């Protein structure tokens, strides 16, 4: 099993969620986060004063998948989240040793 964490632009969330549902991924967790990478934030003017915004709003999507579905999930998330502009985000993948569904006691891939 693999654990995927994807940092994307907020307005791409529905596209990514729909793409995952279309390939049979039923559950995911999202978190509103802030960060920066090569984008380095931007400046805004508020009431005539200019100030720098270093950390930009992003969405972190977390999903656990069977190893045999990893490549397909990475493909659809990449396609759905891509705008072609700087700040599209990143995807991180970890090995997942164990999963347990609390309600039923199911483990590993049965718990996904």
TrEMBL record:
Residues bearing O-UMP-tyrosine are 51
Show the SMART domains listed in the entry: P-II (SM00938)
Recorded hits in InterPro entries, A to Z, give: N-reg_PII (IPR002187), N-reg_PII-like_a/b (IPR011322), N-reg_PII/ATP_PRibTrfase_C (IPR015867), N-reg_PII_CS (IPR017918), N-reg_PII_urydylation_site (IPR002332)
Q: Which domain of life is it from?
A: Bacteria
Pfam families the UniProt entry points to: P-II
Give GO cellular component annotations, separated by semicolons. cytosol
Recorded GO molecular functions are: ATP binding; enzyme regulator activity
Function description: In nitrogen-limiting conditions, when the ratio of Gln to 2-ketoglutarate decreases, P-II is uridylylated to P-II-UMP. P-II-UMP allows the deadenylation of glutamine synthetase (GS), thus activating the enzyme. Conversely, in nitrogen excess P-II is deuridylated and promotes the adenylation of GS. P-II indirectly controls the transcription of the GS gene (glnA). P-II prevents NR-II-catalyzed conversion of NR-I to NR-I-phosphate, the transcriptional activator of glnA. When P-II is uridylylated to P-II-UMP, these events are reversed.
Instruction: Indicate the quaternary assembly.
Output: Homotrimer.
Q: Which family does it belong to?
A: Belongs to the P(II) protein family.
Kindly provide the name given to this protein in its UniProt entry.
Nitrogen regulatory protein P-II
Provide the species name.
Bartonella apihabitans
């Amino acid at each position: 099993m693999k654990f995927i964490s994807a940092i994307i632009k907020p307005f791409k969330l529905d596209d990514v969620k729909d793409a995952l549902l279309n390939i049979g991924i039923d559950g995911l967790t999202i978190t509103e986060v802030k960060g920066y990478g090569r984008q380095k934030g931007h400046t805004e003017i508020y009431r005539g004063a200019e100030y720098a915004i270093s950390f930009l709003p992003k969405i972190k999507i977390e999903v656990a998948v069977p190893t045999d579905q990893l490549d397909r999930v990475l493909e659809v998330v990449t396609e759905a989240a891509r705008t072609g502009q700087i700040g599209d985000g990143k995807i991180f993948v970890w090995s997942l040793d164990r999963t347990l569904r609390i309600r039923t006691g199911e483990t590993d891939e049965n718990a996904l």
